[in-house]
């Protein structure tokens, strides 16, 4: 965050600059204190800068001023970064990550860019595990559905379930 050039991060700043560029083609007309009517090619959008609302609803959903809001902000000659949601600001990000980012001492770690051939031979580096893939086609691990009917075998000799005629162990079954 120390390398951030503006009040927001580089990704949010890029989105903002795209919205500002798209707002060049929109015509904004002020009505009331904080209300602005923005006219596009085929839509009229109402923007309320005090409540940070736009009838296009993109501003409320993302927290980043949409192109309509950027046109309204430009009409009032305001700073666009004051209308960005607070969670995107540098001050909020510093508060969020103040206690969770603890630097780790790396005084005994080797610098990978400055290693020589003898360093590579003397040190043990963690390599990925060696795996062997079995030959042939993989078995299909099918999970049977709970709604699937399970076929129950019934013996034609003794009329008992659980086996068929070839596996029947009853020597002289009597059919009931």
TrEMBL record:
GO molecular-function terms, A-Z: zinc ion binding
Taxonomy, superkingdom: Eukaryota
Sequence ranges assigned to domain Zinc finger PMZ-type in this UniProt record: 52-79
Region forming the signal peptide: none
PANTHER family listed in its UniProt record: MUTATOR TRANSPOSASE MUDRA PROTEIN (PTHR31973:SF187), POLYPROTEIN, PUTATIVE-RELATED (PTHR31973)
Protein name: Zinc finger PMZ-type domain-containing protein
Lineage of the species this protein comes from: Eukaryota, Viridiplantae, Streptophyta, Embryophyta, Tracheophyta
């Amino acid at each position: 965050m120390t390398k951030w050039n503006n009040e927001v991060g580089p990704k949010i700043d890029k989105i903002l600059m795209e919205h500002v560029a798209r707002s060049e083609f929109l015509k904004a007309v002020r009505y009331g204190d904080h209300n602005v009517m923005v006219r596009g090619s085929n839509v009229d959008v109402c923007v309320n800068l005090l409540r940070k609302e736009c009838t296009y609803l993109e501003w409320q959903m993302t927290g980043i001023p949409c192109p309509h809001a950027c046109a309204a902000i430009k009409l009032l000659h305001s700073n666009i970064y004051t209308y960005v949601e607070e969670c995107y600001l540098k001050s909020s990000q510093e508060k969020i990550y103040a206690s969770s980012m603890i630097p780790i001492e790396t005084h005994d770690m080797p610098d990978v860019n400055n290693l020589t051939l003898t360093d590579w031979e003397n040190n043990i580096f963690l390599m990925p595990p060696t795996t062997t893939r079995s030959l042939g086609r993989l078995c299909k691990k099918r999970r049977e559905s709970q709604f699937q009917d399970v076929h129950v075998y019934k013996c034609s000799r003794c009329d008992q379930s659980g086996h068929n005629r070839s596996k029947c162990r009853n020597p002289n079954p009597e059919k009931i």
